[in-house]
Amino acid sequence: MLIYRLQTAESHRHVESGKNLLKKKGRHMAVKIIIKRRVPESIAPKLRPLLIKLRNLAMNQPGYITGETLKRIDRPGQNLVISTWNSMEAWRQWAVNSERESVQAQIDALLGQPTEYEIYSSE
Q1: What does each C-alpha distance from 104 to 54, 70, 108 come to in angstroms?
Q2: Which of 21, 32, 105, 123 has the CA that lies 20 to 30 A from 44?
Q3: Cβ distance 107 to 47 under 8 Å?
């Protein structure tokens, strides 16, 4: 299983170097992006519109397949998003999208810490 870890908006650019790693026999392999955020209840109402905007933007990107948001039951405030893309290249294009980076910067500013990303493939 291939794993990448992105810690800040700046580090999204490092995905560029791995864009061909997930090609096999000339075809692209789907990737799942695990996105982790710690959301204090006090800022959740302010954060919600930004998260909705980010999801709506992602849904309109080439290569986006699906997304799922989960809230951890035993640790309130810990959220997990599983975003599926048809290729590493599709995710990379989204990761460096200026509109996404702008919304993500607002999210991280509200959270007071960077969002965590992990990129997985079944190969």
Answers
A1: 8, 18, 6
A2: 32
A3: yes
Domain ranges of the chain: 3-120
- SS3 for 68? strand
Half-sphere exposure of 118 (CA within 13 A, CB side): 11
Token pair in block for residue 1: 């299983």
Dist CA 28 CA 25 (whole Å)? 8
Alpha carbon distance, N-terminus to C-terminus of the chain: 6
**Overall size of the chain counted in residues:** 123
DSSP one-letter code for 30 = -
For 3-120, CATH gives 3.30.70.100
User: CB–CB of 58/67 below 8 Å?
Assistant: yes
